[in-house]
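>> received
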Amino acid sequence: MAEGLVPCPHCSKTYTMKKNLYQHMRTVHNVSPQLKGNIRCPLQCEENFSSHKELRKHLENLHKYVLENEIQEFENSETFDVWKKKS
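>> returned
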């Protein structure tokens, strides 16, 4: 195989970019690639996630930790910008 090509683990196709391989795996093979992310579980269980949504599911299902949502409403974009700078 040529250097720099990423092979599909399910067929003989190869890709130059991982994102294209992952898209192929989702659409052709109906498989979600297991990606190691850089979002670590804050409860020291050594799990990493590629999205906050996955982390939230993990915390709720495995640790039985319920996360509360805080809803912010802004009158306009200027008040949002002020809030964003404070956060």
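>> The chain has three helices and four strands.
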